[in-house]
Amino acid sequence: MTLHTKHWVAGLLGFSGLALSLLVPGGPIETRSFSHINSLTLGSFNTFLTTLGLGSLLLIYFVLKSECWAIFVAAVCGLSYLGVYGLDLAQIFPVSPDAMPPALFAIEVLGTVISFPLIALSIQSLRGLNSKMSVASSLPSTDLSLSWKTPQALIAISLAMISVGIIAFATRSAMGL
Predict the structure, then answer these.
(1) Measured between alpha carbons, how far is 103 from 124 in angstroms, rounded to an integer?
(2) Per-residue pLDDT tens for 161-172?
C-alpha cells in the first residue's frame, strides 16, 4: 500500500464519519420525524449509525498504521455508507412523511459518491498490504509502534458513554419526543 492510498482511505473515512455525524436526528440538518417507526427499530438503526460514524473516526489511526484488519473494516464501512445513504435516498428506510431537507439530500448524495472511492481504495490497499506481507514475512520483525499514554479502558468507557448519549438523543429526536 502506498502512503498516498493509505492517506486517501484515512481521509475518506474521516470525511464520511464527520458527514454522518452532521445528520443526527434533532440536529440542524436531519429534521424529519420518524415517530411512526418502532422505537426498538429506530434505536437499533441509530446504534448502527453511531457505531459507523464513530468507528470510522477511530479507524483512521489504525489505517494510518497500515493495519490489515483496519483496511478491511474501512472497505466494510464504505459498503455500509453506500447502503445507508442508498436506502434513504431510494426512500426504502427510514421513510418519513416529511420531505428530505435539501442539505440532507446534498450530504447523502456526496456521502454516496465518496463511498465508492473509499471501497475501491480500501480494496487496493488490502491487495498492496497482502503482497507486502508475503515479502515481509521472511524479514525480522521490529515493533516500532507507539504505546497509548491514556489507558485504553478509559477511552473505551468514554466512547461508550458518548455513544449511548448520541443514540438516546437521536432516537428521542427522531421520534419527536
Answers:
(1) 32
(2) 888 888 888 888
